[in-house]
Design brief:
Layout (H helix, E strand, L loop, with lengths): L1 H30 L3 E7 L3 E3 L4 E9 L4 E3 L11 E7 L3 E3 L2 E11 L4 E5 L3 E5 L6 E5 L3 E6 L22 H29 L14 H15 L7 H4 L1
Parallel strand pairs: 2-11
Antiparallel strand pairs: 1-3, 3-7, 4-9, 5-7, 6-7, 8-11, 9-10
């Protein structure tokens, strides 16, 4: 009986030691892992059309060569609205790289942001390795008015007061355009006749003044003195 209890005790102790050693080895391996990746969102429940900020953070040793997926990678039912690639930052001997996506969807229901694959190389080895982000679940709710009545009835149509200043302004401009058009038409018409509009013609001279003016011009011509008698009479 004592031998059986002792055997069980030894087995239990051995399993405990192996478990502790395994956990310690795993912790050391994680601590010295050449590359780690984390992903998160700012909210896991949204309404249709809301924006979600999806962030991927990659921490690796400086010698690790990383290849990010295309910025337009497939994110399932979510549409990429915007993205931002931050410059790498060195911290405690590690390089931290970060990409932030702004995503949205117009479908309702439960959806999952699929894992994104990131490839890397550990020099001097040229073998290409890869790791993936964790899938993230997001629930999209529809926009529904509450029972209290978020959608209210339409108010009666309002009547805007008339602004007579605007009517007078438009009427004055219209009248000015009409006057300019009529004035231009009259000017062109009288110009063709060699006359000016709105200018009265002088009255014709009396007959005796016309005769006297003709005699004056004849005397000034001095046709008799030049021997042109025929032209004089």
């Amino acid at each position: 009986m004592k031998h059986s209890l002792y055997t069980r005790f030894c087995k239990t102790m051995l399993l405990g030691i192996l478990l502790v050693c395994g956990l310690a080895e795993l912790a050391v391996a994680q601590q010295h892992s050449p590359i780690e990746i984390t992903s998160r969102v700012d909210k896991s429940r949204i309404t249709i059309g809301d924006l979600v900020h999806y962030e991927i953070v990659l921490t690796h040793k400086p010698e690790v060569k990383v290849t990010w997926p295309a910025l337009g990678s497939n994110l399932g039912a979510f549409e990429i609205r915007d993205y931002q690639v931050e410059d790498p930052v060195k911290q405690k001997g590690q390089v931290i790289e970060k990409i932030s996506y702004t995503i949205s969807t117009f479908d309702t229901g439960a959806y999952t942001i699929p894992p994104l694959e990131i490839k890397y190389v550990l020099p001097p080895d040229t073998t290409q390795l890869s790791l993936r982000t964790e899938p993230i679940d997001i629930y999209v709710a529809s926009l529904r008015p509450s029972l209290a009545g978020d959608i209210r009835g339409l108010k009666p149509q309002g009547i805007l007061p008339r602004d007579w200043k605007i009517w007078l302004l438009y009427g004055g401009l219209g009248l000015l355009v009409v006057l300019l058009a009529v004035g231009g038409w009259l000017f062109i018409r009288y110009r063709k006749k060699g006359e000016l509009p709105f200018v009265k013609k002088p009255p014709p001279l009396p007959a005796h003044q016309v005769a006297l003016e003709a005699l004056r011009k004849l005397q000034e011509a001095r046709l008799l003195e030049m021997g042109e008698v025929k032209e004089h009479y």
